[in-house]
Design goal:
The protein has 467 residues and is α+β, with helices and mostly antiparallel strands. The chain is built from eleven helices and 17 strands. The chain binds zinc ion.
Length: 467
């Protein structure tokens, strides 16, 4: 026993030594700190597995939701499905005193491999307008449409239960939960159409966002959030994947040159959004870890965050960790006892509720926090100190902002390691922290302690649109 104590004492003093030799980082900053939020705990436990099950069943009952399917029927096909979604958003809005602006986002697509004839692609969008800064947005999305083996087959039964009634039901449920609150920024709930035929609903909405100058700081694309039994035999309901691209798709040659000399390959706004979502899981969602994947999407595959990334908006794909390919894009059939088809009985709705909660706390936290800092710059080459500078908060946010928090980490560390509250200033110098040895970023913090994602300096990291 005595020996054990000695050993323990030794190892804790060894820890102290390790901390003190960490030097500048340890003396100037501290381990990342954060104010716990009771409202986010309430939101984290609000999504209902039963509501998700009911909504997925309703969507499955439309027979097929193929983009080229029936639009006139009230019970079958894509037309009936989108009218039901519109009505559901209206019902949610009625319950919160009209807090949602519901509209159809439409475009006509033709001459495409998967949409040869002119077809209306109709998404359903609901906006919950923010109080202090209504022109900035965070967005959650799921998809309306479904498919079977032949992507052009618009008449066969195509339940699309997990792919992707799950993400859509999650989006509707998040609207139910979050419409009980008022936020500073706006939240968009999007039921996107035409995903399987070529991401058309997302393209149409991203174009609209650009044309209307949306300051869109997060796109959370939910695509398959209810499968816990992988085709590789793994059964796991404790992890979710967040896919986030590296360098921005619309990076200019000049931006790329600057990045080569200063870094930023792993600090796009999408990546720092991914880190933020991972923090939300650690802080608010029981038994859920986020696996942040440094890739746009699954290997060679696509999803509806991409059209937003294409035009420069931060966005990620949130989904289950373990996929089952027999239950995606398959004609319903049984081959020697092996089931094929995306049917509801394989879905885990408690897990879907957990991933819905992850989205909801992320949307709420960002919409209560001030906007991520703009125009973040850094300097400090051949100096002992590192200085960060950023733009003043916008006029409408001056009343809610408490100040800023600078973060830094070793360049090979995946997550922010050190932080320092620097007050309500627009420039701060970290004394004797050498710029060469760390990556840096800055977040904004509201008076009630809600915090934005961390913004890496320069074009590589900004959450603002660059065109
Ligand atoms: Zn799919």
């Amino acid at each position: 026993m005595k020996k054990l104590f000695t050993k323990l004492a030794l190892s804790s003093s060894a820890l102290l030594v390790a901390a003190s030799i960490a030097g500048p980082a340890a003396s100037q900053g501290q381990a990342v700190s954060y104010k716990d939020q009771a409202k986010l705990h309430a939101i984290a436990t609000a999504p209902s597995a039963e509501n998700l099950r009911k909504d997925v069943q309703t969507l499955v009952d439309f027979g097929t939701r193929h983009t080229l399917s029936e639009t006139e029927s009230e019970t079958q096909g894509i037309g009936a499905a989108r009218r039901w979604i519109f009505a559901e958003f209206e019902r949610i809005s009625a319950a919160c005193g009209g807090c949602l602006e519901v509209y159809y986002s439409t475009g006509v697509i033709e001459g495409e491999a998967r949409i040869p004839e002119a077809t209306e692609v109709v998404s359903v969008v609901a906006i919950q307008r923010g109080k202090t800064d209504p022109e900035r947005y965070v967005l959650m999305a799921g998809d309306i449409d479904s498919r079977v083996t032949d992507v052009m087959d618009s008449t066969s039964i195509s339940p699309g239960a997990n792919d992707n009634a799950s993400g859509l039901a999650g989006t509707i449920e998040a609207a139910r939960v979050l419409s009980q609150y008022e936020f500073n920024g706006s939240i968009v709930y999007a039921a996107l159409a035409g995903e399987e035929q070529g991401l058309f609903g997302g393209q149409i909405l991203a174009k609209q966002a650009l044309e209307e100058n949306w300051r869109l700081h997060a796109v959370l694309n939910n695509d398959m959030i209810a499968n816990i039994a992988g085709i590789n035999g793994v059964i796991d309901n404790t992890t979710a994947r967040v896919f986030a691209e590296g360098t921005r798709q619309n990076e200019t040659a000049a931006d790329a040159r600057a990045r080569r000399f200063t870094g930023g390959e792993v600090d796009s706004p999408s990546r720092n959004l991914g880190r933020y979502i991972s923090w939300m899981a650690d802080r608010y969602i029981q038994n859920l870890d986020v696996m942040l994947v440094y890739r746009l999407d699954r290997f060679g595959r696509g999803g509806h965050h991409r059209p937003f990334n294409d035009v420069g908006y931060p966005g990620v794909r949130i989904m289950e960790t373990n996929e089952h390919y027999d239950r995606q894009h398959q004609d319903l059939r049984n081959e020697d006892g092996r089931h094929f088809g995306d049917t509801i009985e394989f879905m885990d709705f408690d897990y879907a509720a957990k991933l819905t909660a992850l989205n909801a706390v992320t949307l709420a936290s960002m919409a209560w926090a001030p906007a991520p800092p703009s125009e973040v710059e850094i300097r400090g080459a051949v100096q002992p100190h590192t200085t960060l500078r950023w733009a003043e908060a916008s006029e409408q946010e001056k009343d809610i902002i408490a100040g800023y928090r600078i973060y830094w980490r070793y360049t090979d560390a995946p997550n922010w390691q050190f932080s320092r509250d620097v007050g309500n200033v627009t420039e701060f110098t970290l004394e004797n922290v050498v710029i060469d040895n760390y990556f840096f970023g800055v977040s904004s913090v509201s008076k009630d302690g809600f915090e934005s994602p961390v913004v890496f300096p320069g074009a590589a990291g900004t959450f603002d649109l660059r065109q």
